[in-house]
TrEMBL record, chain A:
Pfam families: TctC (PF03401). CDD domains: PBP2_Bug_TTT (cd07012). Residues 1-23 form the signal peptide. The keyword Transcription does not apply. Keywords: Signal. Belongs to the UPF0065 (bug) family. This is Tricarboxylate transport protein TctC.
TrEMBL record, chain B:
The keyword NAD does not apply. This is Tricarboxylate transport membrane protein TctA. It comes from Lutibaculum baratangense AMV1. The chain crosses the membrane at residues 12-37, 57-80, 106-130, 136-158, 165-182, 202-223, 258-279, 315-338, 358-382, 388-406, 413-431, 469-490. The keyword Transmembrane helix applies. Keywords: Membrane, Transmembrane, Transmembrane helix. Pfam families: TctA (PF01970). Residues 19-438 form the DUF112 domain. InterPro entries: DUF112_TM.
């Protein structure tokens, strides 16, 4: 009870700080949260957890809406072109929205114009093989004398996979077309290919029965789920730790400053919510709140990194 | 396991669990009946409502929906020639002719009994195979998925209504539609004509609404009268006739249930394939294959048993590997995660009672939905006596709202209207519509898995024959295509022998 009262007090204080005038104008009704992928996936889950936390403090509903198609580009386009009144915001797949731009494809959005609210996580990757695989390190793979096969999901997954192979100097064959990261991992377990490069959190969730063996962690962070696995920097591939999937949230360009402040306050408060923390702990999901500025900086460095690997990503 | 079941039963009887189950069942029925709305939509809408209740109660709600949806969808398939959900598409083939003959009551009775028993069998099969679930799933790789899709495409042969050429033309049209949109293998968008809606391809549900519901009411309106050709016959046909028929054709029921549970366990293939496969196998093994498509009650039992049994099967990939077995399960996984449960094998270890609660409620809901519907079946059947002038505006508005509600998108409504026109032209020029649906549904599964197989085998075509399960499925394809021919030869030999004696 006491905790709740304190929470309410904090909420009131924050609302004041966010600008009293704006608090009257937003929300004007249910808020729409666009998700560029289908229900049940990683982006969908993060978005729904956030929507639930935001609803706790708003009088309106935050309605998740899955806008699928074009490998996530349709959702990003719809979100970018939404009316800039603060009633619509979206979760964006970074680097998914950057890659087509780098590849020179024409897209209907400008990444630098998206009004970033912040991010919930930066999911880095891990290289995994089946538990009985003869390969224990990247060096083993390089010594195999034949191309190593990988299963991959989505444009970001394929890009991460290609960058990995280019960076470590490994000849790879990538089998695409899996409907999710989990199913790409299932592909490894049943022998479609030798390895895969999933986000660490997906690999952890999938590996409840120890079907997989991690051989390279593409992160500097401590990863208790794979305690003995070598980190990219130690193996001499520090650059690989810069890759990751960012669960980024943003508004379409042109939202008036006061409305924007109110949305930002509600978003920030939701990231502090108890329900988000419990969810992350219970499911072992990566959760690391990131401000809009931190996110912009990360997006910039991701863009730089991906531009450097432009030819690799395009598969040349 | 038994202990967990006991806990679930306890939870069901105490703390209002039964109420959640009942509400879920009613919601499932309504969402199943309305074309366009189906399991994924119902579950997605329900997710926020479950935040306030505990996980077990949420399972009762979700299980109620999952158990009731497949039967709800058969009601409109039988009465209005409009499948409520995609897996009910096969039911229209004999269900609607029965209605036209004035046997709507019997058809509903058969669908209800087949659905409940199929649902129970599905859960039973799930219980039995749970220990070997992992092995089963690992047997299916892209070559097997491809062969399974080809086997499903063979169902086109029995759904052409004797108009093979027109059926194949419709199927080719369906395949062309299936290839519109984002190509998951190469990452390119195909045939989008600059329209961003098409990046996601043409959605199956609004297309089905157009092809069946809208096309149907246009032709009904032009024909006038009522749906049943012979209104006086409706009173004669009894619901109980349909229920008894299910026991008389127990082999059909059992076969449908097994096919449903097995296909359900294979991720990404789904209930629609299960229903069509079950239907086509029933036709091919029948002594009187020509009676199908004209109102044979077995043609209702087979698909309905399988699409309810599938619910049990589709839990297998979720429990063994944490991956969804169907679109509906994908949404359900989201619900689990939001309740702090990680889908996958750890569910069975740490949260067995949650899973038994879900299984229990799916089983109960498939029976409950049938009972609820049977109570009003006679009244429902009366709809076929109503002057179509009154039915047309109602069905038209429900269909278009259903198409809109799917994603709150006007584009889906436009797709429904366009396919309504296509569907009407197909009726007018006597093209069967089911081959188009089967091809639309399976085109992508077949294509993606064929290309994945080729990547895995590095372009070696023999991969489909060297893998044991793939070979078995290939032989089944050959068998299913040659059955009519073999049967024809046998009949001719018998005829010539009789002529001799």
């Amino acid at each position: 009870m006491m905790k709740r009262a304190l929470g309410l007090a904090a909420a009131a204080a924050m609302a004041l700080a966010a600008g009293q005038a704006a608090a009257q104008d937003w929300p004007k009704g249910d808020v729409q949260l666009i998700i560029p992928s289908g229900p049940g996936g990683g982006f969908d889950t993060y978005a729904r957890v956030l929507a639930r936390a935001m609803e706790e403090d708003l009088d309106v509903k935050v309605v998740p809406q899955n806008v699928t198609g074009g490998g996530g580009l349709r959702g990003a386009t719809v979100a970018y072109q939404a009316k800039p009144d603060g009633q619509t915001f979206a979760v964006f797949n970074v680097p998914g929205i950057i890659e087509p731009v780098i590849n020179g494809e024409s897209v209907a959005y400008d990444v630098s114009e998206i009004d970033w609210l912040g991010a919930m996580a930066f999911n880095q990757y891990v290289v995994v093989v089946g538990k009985d695989s003869p390969y224990d390190t990247i060096e083993d793979m390089k010594a195999a004398g034949e191309p190593i096969t990988f299963t991959a999901y989505g444009s970001s997954g394929v890009a991460a996979n290609r960058i990995l192979c280019a960076e470590v100097g490994l000849e790879c064959e990538i089998i695409t077309g899996y409907p999710s990261n989990s199913e790409a991992l299932l592909g490894v377990v049943r022998g479609d290919a030798i390895a895969s490069v999933p986000p660490i959190s997906t690999a952890t969730a999938f590996n409840a029965k120890g079907d997989l063996k991690a051989i390279l962690l593409m992160t500097e962070r401590e990863t208790p789920e794979f305690p003995d696995t070598e980190k990219a920097a130690d193996a001499g591939y520090a650059n690989l730790a810069n890759l990751g999937l960012i669960r980024a949230f943003g508004l379409p360009p042109g939202v008036p400053a006061e409305t924007r402040a109110a949305v930002q306050a509600a978003f920030d408060k939701a990231l502090e919510a108890e329900s988000v923390k419990t969810w992350a702990e219970d499911t072992g999901s990566a959760f690391e709140a990131m401000s809009g500025d931190e996110l912009s900086a990360l997006i910039e460095s991701q863009t730089e990194l991906l531009t450097r690997y432009k030819d690799v990503i395009a598969g040349n | 396991m038994l202990e967990a079941v006991a806990t679930s039963v306890g939870a069901l009887t105490a703390s209002g669990g039964a109420i959640y189950l009942f509400v879920g069942t009613l919601v499932g029925l309504v969402f199943g009946i309305i074309p366009g709305l189906g399991g994924p939509t119902a579950l997605a809408l329900l997710i926020p409502l479950t935040f306030g209740i505990d996980t077990t109660a949420a399972m009762f709600l979700a299980g109620g929906i999952m158990g009731a949806i497949p039967f709800g969808g058969s009601v409109t398939a039988i009465l209005l020639n409009t499948p409520g959900t995609a897996p009910n598409a096969a039911t229209v083939y004999d269900g609607y002719p029965m209605t036209k003959k004035g046997q709507a009551g019997a058809a509903l009775g058969a669908a209800a009994a087949a659905s409940s028993l199929g649902g129970l069998f599905g859960i039973l099969i799930l219980f039995m195979v749970l220990p070997v679930a992992r092995e089963i799933i690992l047997m299916f790789s892209p070559p097997e998925f491809f062969m399974l899709a080809v086997l499903g495409l063979c169902a086109i042969a029995v759904s052409t209504d004797g108009k093979m050429l027109k059926g194949l033309i419709a199927a080719c049209f369906g395949l062309m539609i299936a290839f519109v949109g984002y190509d998951n293998v190469s990452g390119a968008v195909r045939f989008d004509y600059g329209i961003d809606y098409l990046w996601d391809g043409i959605s199956l549900i609004p297309a089905l609404i157009g092809l069946f519901a809208i096309a149907q009411i246009v032709s009904l309106y032009l024909a006038g009268g009522s749906i049943a050709d012979n209104p006086s016959a409706v009173r004669v046909s009894r619901v109980s006739d349909g229920i008894f028929a299910v026991f008389r054709y127990w082999k059909t029921l059992l076969r449908g249930s097994v096919i449903g549970a097995v296909i359900g366990a294979v991720p990404g293939v789904g209930g629609t394939v299960a229903a069509f496969l079950s239907y086509s196998v029933t036709v091919q093994t029948s002594r009187d294959p020509d009676s199908f498509g004209k109102g044979n009650i077995e043609g209702v039992i087979a698909p309905e048993a399988s699409n309810n049994a599938r619910e049990g099967g589709s839990l297998i990939p979720t429990l063994a590997f944490g991956i969804p077995g169907s679109a509906e399960m994908a949404v359900f996984l989201g619900l689990l995660v939001l309740h702090g449960l990680q889908p996958g094998p750890s569910l069975l270890i740490n949260h067995l009672d949650v899973i038994t609660s879900l299984m229990l409620s799916i089983a109960i809901a498939s029976v409950l939905a049938s009972i609820v519907c049977l109570a009003v079946a006679r009244q429902l059947a009366l709809i076929t006596l109503v002057d179509v002038n009154y039915l047309v505006p109602v069905i038209l508005s429900v269909s278009l709202v259903g198409a809109y509600a799917l994603e709150s998108s006007m584009h889906d409504v436009i797709v429904a209207v366009i396919f309504g026109a296509i569907g009407y032209l197909m009726i007018r020029f006597d093209y069967p519509r089911l081959p188009l649906v089967i091809a639309m549904f399976l085109g992508e599964v077949a294509e993606v898995n064929f290309r994945q197989s080729m990547m895995i085998a590095r372009g070696d075509w023999t991969v489909f024959l060297t893998r044991p399960l793939s070979l078995v499925l290939f032989l089944l394809v050959i068998l299913s295509l040659s059955v009519p021919f073999i049967r024809y030869l046998l009949r001719r030999r018998r005829a010539s022998r009789e002529a001799l004696t």
